[in-house]
């Protein structure tokens, strides 16, 4: 019997999670469930105590999936299509729920049979091996898998195909000559940095603003406090970004640029991402414990609000941009708490208007680049194309309001008490106006693609304006700086 005939007589069983799709359907459904109703997070440990099979049933039975939005591996799909043309029997064998596996099978149209988990049976590892042996006999099937749980099935299969393997599956393949269909290699530092969105840490330099304005930035103790606060916020923010990406996996996969993010693209699996997120939270808490307790309170508030934003608020019209403006302002409040600085209501008022303008420009750009018709909402947002002009007007008005607040502050008693030559800092008003208007002009031209705060922190023209403003403040307050 030649190899072709032999192959067609042998069933080909395919795992789902990490193999046919790059993600894990159970984890995706857990996050969909919690996003729909955060109170379900309290029920997850209760269900888990009843066993994994029951846990899966409770989660899967409450979530609807769109099979078209899963992260299928194109190499595996192409391989299955070729084997299907040869006349092979293709079996989807998964530890995910039977009904969800049936939906995926109907969508792809590749599988002759589907076996999955039920309310009283978790079809994983040894249980899956037993089922396949019962259906096909010893070495009566080939198997495509990816993880440690698949090693027992590899041992029973006639031939093993190893896809994007974890460490155990890779070691087995190396020892037994398993054919690797697709191997994206180990997670790289670049993948990790992109998942953490390290470039977004630039936003957290706002923590230093109160110390700069109070002229205490160069004190050694203050610099240490600000460094600790910066990394505490950065670590926590990255953890929130990870959870946000997990909640939005299906939407990110349909997005023209977000689909390249490590989680959406399957470069990093959800369990690894969750471990990293909790590690970052732990480091953030440790740093917060070294700072004044008020900073810890602000950090906790930031975590609660950002989590609420990721779960619900970012889908609500206008409340999303107001929350974003508030979160930027919270960073400034955290800076005050970290160095025990007196609160400045001028600074907070300016911050709210300034960052509201930047939040609105972010929504404007999203609407401008969206390919949707009128009356249709932007995916995951509360906005429609006809809102674009109102957003632009509100954003510009908010930016000018920030300038008004700044101008009033520069003529206040606080400025005269802090600066020896207060008239020197008046040019800051047109400098800030330049920053705001330039961002909006670029946005209206369709030439703005970045987070506005990150843009300001990295754009060389904006950096020149900021440096010029800092020089003016330093010159105007020379007496106070020299007295440190």
TrEMBL record:
It is found in: Membrane. Pfam families: HAD (PF12710), UbiA (PF01040). Its main location: membrane. SUPFAM superfamilies: HAD-like. GO terms for biological process: glycolipid biosynthetic process. The keyword Membrane applies. One of its GO terms (cellular component) is plasma membrane. InterPro entries: HAD-like_sf (IPR036412), HAD_sf (IPR023214), Prenyltransferase (IPR039653), UbiA_prenyltransferase (IPR000537), UbiA_sf (IPR044878). The chain crosses the membrane at residues 229-251, 318-339, 345-365, 390-410, 422-443, 464-483. PANTHER family: DECAPRENYL-PHOSPHATE PHOSPHORIBOSYLTRANSFERASE (PTHR11048:SF5), PRENYLTRANSFERASES (PTHR11048). It is a multi-pass membrane protein. Keywords: Cell membrane, Membrane, Transferase, Transmembrane, Transmembrane helix. This is UbiA family prenyltransferase. One of its GO terms (molecular function) is transferase activity, transferring alkyl or aryl (other than methyl) groups. The keyword Transferase applies.
């Amino acid at each position: 019997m030649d190899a072709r005939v032999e192959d067609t007589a042998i069933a080909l069983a395919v795992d789902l999670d990490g193999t046919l799709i790059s993600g894990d359907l159970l984890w995706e459904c857990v996050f969909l469930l919690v996003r729909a109703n955060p109170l379900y997070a309290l029920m997850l440990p209760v269900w888990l105590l009843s066993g994994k099979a029951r846990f899966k049933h409770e989660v899967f039975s409450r979530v609807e999936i769109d099979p078209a939005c899963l992260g299928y591996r194109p190499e595996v799909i192409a391989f299955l299509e070729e084997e299907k043309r040869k006349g092979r029997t293709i079996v989807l064998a998964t530890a995910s729920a039977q009904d969800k596996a049936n939906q995926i099978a109907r969508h792809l149209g590749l599988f002759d049979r589907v076996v999955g988990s039920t309310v009283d049976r978790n079809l994983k590892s040894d249980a899956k091996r037993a089922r396949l042996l019962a259906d096909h006999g010893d070495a009566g099937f080939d198997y495509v898998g990816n993880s440690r749980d698949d090693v027992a099935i590899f041992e029973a299969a006639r031939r093993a195909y190893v896809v994007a393997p974890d460490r155990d599956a890779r070691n087995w393949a190396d020892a037994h000559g398993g054919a690797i269909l697709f191997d994206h290699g180990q997670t790289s530092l670049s993948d990790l940095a992109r998942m953490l969105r390290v470039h977004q840490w630039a936003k957290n330099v706002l923590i230093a603003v109160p110390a700069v304005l109070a002229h205490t930035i160069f004190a050694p103790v203050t610099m240490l406090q600000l460094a600790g606060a910066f990394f505490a916020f950065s670590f926590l923010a990255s953890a929130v970004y990870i959870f946000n990406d997990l909640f939005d996996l299906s939407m990110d996969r349909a997005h023209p640029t977000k689909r390249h993010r490590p989680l959406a693209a399957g470069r990093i699996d959800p369990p690894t991402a969750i471990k990293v997120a909790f590690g970052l939270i732990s480091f953030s808490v440790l740093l917060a414990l070294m700072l004044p307790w008020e900073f810890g309170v602000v950090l906790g508030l930031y975590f609660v609000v950002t989590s609420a934003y990721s779960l619900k608020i970012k889908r609500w019209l206008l409340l999303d941009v107001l929350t974003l403006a508030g979160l930027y302002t919270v960073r400034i409040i955290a800076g005050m708490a970290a160095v025990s600085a007196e609160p400045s209501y001028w600074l907070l008022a300016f911050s709210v208007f300034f960052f509201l303008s930047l939040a609105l420009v972010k929504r404007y750009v999203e609407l401008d680049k969206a390919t949707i018709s009128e009356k249709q909402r932007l995916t995951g947002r509360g906005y429609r194309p006809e809102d674009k002009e109102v957003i632009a007007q509100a954003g510009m008005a908010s930016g000018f309001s920030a300038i008004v607040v700044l101008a009033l502050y520069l003529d206040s008693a606080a400025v005269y008490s802090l600066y020896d030559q207060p008239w020197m800092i008046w040019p800051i008003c047109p400098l800030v106006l330049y920053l705001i208007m330039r961002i909006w002009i670029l946005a209206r031209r369709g030439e703005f693609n970045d987070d506005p705060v990150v843009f300001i922190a990295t754009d060389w023209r904006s950096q020149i304006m900021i440096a010029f403003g800092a020089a003016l403040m330093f010159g105007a307050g020379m007496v106070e700086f020299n007295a440190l």
